[in-house]
TrEMBL record:
It is an enzyme of class 6 (ligase). This is Dihydrofolate synthetase. SUPFAM superfamilies: MurD-like peptide ligases, catalytic domain, MurD-like peptide ligases, peptide-binding domain. GO terms for biological process: folic acid-containing compound biosynthetic process; one-carbon metabolic process. It catalyses: 7,8-dihydropteroate + L-glutamate + ATP = 7,8-dihydrofolate + ADP + phosphate + H(+). Belongs to the folylpolyglutamate synthase family. The keyword Ligase applies. The keyword Lyase does not apply. GO terms for molecular function: ATP binding; dihydrofolate synthase activity; metal ion binding; tetrahydrofolylpolyglutamate synthase activity. It comes from the Eukaryota. Its EC number is 6.3.2.12. Keywords: ATP-binding, Ligase, Magnesium, Metal-binding, Nucleotide-binding, One-carbon metabolism. GO terms for cellular component: cytoplasm; cytosol; mitochondrion.
Amino acid sequence: MIELGLSRISRLVQQTPLSWKAIHIAGTNGKGSISAYLSHLLASAGVRCGRFTSPHLIDRWDCITIDERVVQESLFRQIEARVKLRDQTLGIGASEFELLAATAFEIFNHEQVEIGVIEVGMGGRLDATNILNNVLVSVIAKIGLDHQAFLGNTIEEIAREKAGILKPGVKCVVDGTNCSEAIVAIKDRIAELGLEATIVHPDTPDPQLPSLLDLFRRNDLLTHQRANMSCAAAAVKSVLPQVRPALEPDSLIPQLASVEWPGRLQKLALQPLTGRIEPVLLDGAHNTQSAEVLGEYVERKLRLKGENVTWVIAASHGKDIRPLFHSIIKPGDSVAATSFGPVDGMPWVKAADPNELCACVQDIPSIGEVQSFGKDIPGALDWACTKADGGPLVIAGSLYLVSDVLRLVREANDS
């Protein structure tokens, strides 16, 4: 169950003051990538850096890293048990996400982290991570329609909730590729607080960061990738003088080229599972905005010869699946629909019925073969690999499907 609010997390962490400073990131899409870019840049600068993102990919603790390495399971379980005991003793009744956030924060204390890169779970104003009171810079990534039941039905309403992470006296960085409605709402909050703000535009990189423009010229990057890198670069430029004043921010920028964010435009080998030699594309696109990004990538990279694409899809129950899948699946494509399993730590998350997914994509004119595989993800992958016959194959629609596929590949590699 999702319960927004700061009262429970406040009681949960009040006995353990945070010993580190934070970079706080909100947004609908891109905040995970920005987190990855930032932690990589800071680690490259010799800053002991923790990162907390959500949801996890395979194991519950893999959403917490120290200097780019996933925290040890034993330490995670030890501190998680301490946090849960405190929750029970004080009768707080914290949510699963609040317990996880508190666990991450205390792990950062234990590991003597200097800076924690913290991704908002949902929204911003009432998200558990907004308990942070020692923030160096706030970042607002791309905003779109998602979680309307909690955040509002318009971009303006959602943007105001995301801008709730902005704090008096704390500099902020904003993705300037946001729509005008979002920008206006965010600027209103910036003006209200009198903040120093940097609104980044990837088409006009900061002249004080010439390496960023060079990086863009050398790499065939999509607009969202350049925007996310620009946000991370601007945040590092703001933070570095406070923690490593001898370092020039521009000297770190080339490191961005080597950052990978699992589950986002990830090339994955399925050979241990299916025998397919060619890599497949794995992406957690789960809303209209992220689907547009995936669609752009597929059009530019996978349909070069007019080839049809084979898809393996799943979605969370309650998602508006029509705009999600109709924006990426094209006439002639083939589709295997499946459902992900239970999500550890998030029992309220349920998968959409694969038969409903099939009915949705069958509305696409001249669609290829469409089959439902129920909960049989391996069966869906086998069918899709056979159908694709070495051609383009994409797994998409849900980060939880991404998690299950990565877990299956890991188990196959370990066996």
